[in-house]
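The freezer alarm interrupted the setup, so I double-checked each line after restarting. Inputs confirmed:
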Amino acid sequence: MDRFFRNKPLVITVILVIIILVLLIATSNSQNISGGQTVAGGVFVPVQRFFYQLTDNISSFFDNSINTTDLAKENAKQKEELASLKSELSDYDELVKENQRLSSLLDYQQQHTNYGFKVAGIVAKNPGIWFESFTINVGSADGIAVDMPVVTPDGVVGRIEEVGLNWAKVMTIIDGRSGISTIVERTRDVGSLRGRMENDPADPLLDMDFLPIDTDIQVGDNILTSGIGGIYPKGLMIGSVVEAGEESNQKKVVVKSAADFRSLEEVMVMVDTGEK
Amino acid sequence: MRIILFILLGAAGIILSGSVLSVVNIAGITPDLLLLTALSVVFLEKTPAGILFAGIGGIVYDIMFSYYIGFYALSSVLAVSIAYAILRRMKRVRPLILAAVGFGAFIVQQMVMAAVVAAVGYEYSFFYMLLRFILPGALITAVLMLPAYYLIRILYVKNWMTPTKSLYDDFIE
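Predicted 3D structure, all chains:
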């Protein structure tokens, strides 16, 4: 077998490419996932959750350390005590932040009692440059299904695109494949919001199309879901207009999402949109 | 042992890419650990094991992160295969060659991905992607190629990943 591998690199490459192409074509038109995917996802999810949280905590610790550097210099004699305090403060800050996040999720749920929510933690993010998606730690065993909306108290995050037993993949609204029917809160004009493939991760923006040319849309206007399309219920906050103009007889409107995609840790899946 | 280490390297690459590196990245660009490992194996063995590693690891990576199974695997296999074709007759490994192959392989990988994305029908500005993501990503890969190569080389020096005798004829390190 090894001899074969050594002598036939071209054959191996061709066989691999054919197998992968078959998989690519087979999965590009299907939303059903295989048992293999469910098992592989199930095995990786707990490990990824651990590493994701660990890294996030380390990042927060360094953020806190940098923010308290000046204070540490002024109190050189109490360096050791300060280091200990900083460590405790870091833990405390983490707890406070987590408490604040969970409180805001609870507030949101109490304000939207007509919907059913499932809180989920982010396990992993797609590390590539082409797609903006992430994996959460709830799946079909928790009642999650494809196309369920995913939100935070700030605004819409995306929708479920794949579900395993204990995990699900979320396609965010800033992904280049995403498109949502929207309504301008003030003018009630309906348009379509789409993500950008070439989004800057630090400042993701969305483009709004199909608006009437005579619309009075202005910078600062809020953009909500229109309820058309059947995935997102009407009236969910998406973001606000940061650029409004005209280009080749069409309205050119750029929207900044209300949800902060850089600091997402927990999200809510709308398991019941109140429409059934 | 060899197979177990390949599995461990692949699993570590996938887990770290989705968790640690997606949080701690460089201006939104995440180093591609699977590609770095596959290229290092090609450099060290001069056998197609690196191509197989890229293919199998790539499919698992796609299962974890991609919507299209094969999106990452296809581009990685092609990138590593080209690297293998260039490197198989090369007797000595120099740092500049390591960096150049890392740089080139990342560009090939991303070009294949760009072609698939365009073929599926999504619109994007290619030049923006090239300047903002692909070229900086290739530079990061080139820089990281050296430590990746020397880290994985340790496994070979300790005979933990040495290929079988039939492959050993061509094994340079």
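Quick read of the result. Chain A touches chain B through 56 residues (CB under 8 Å).
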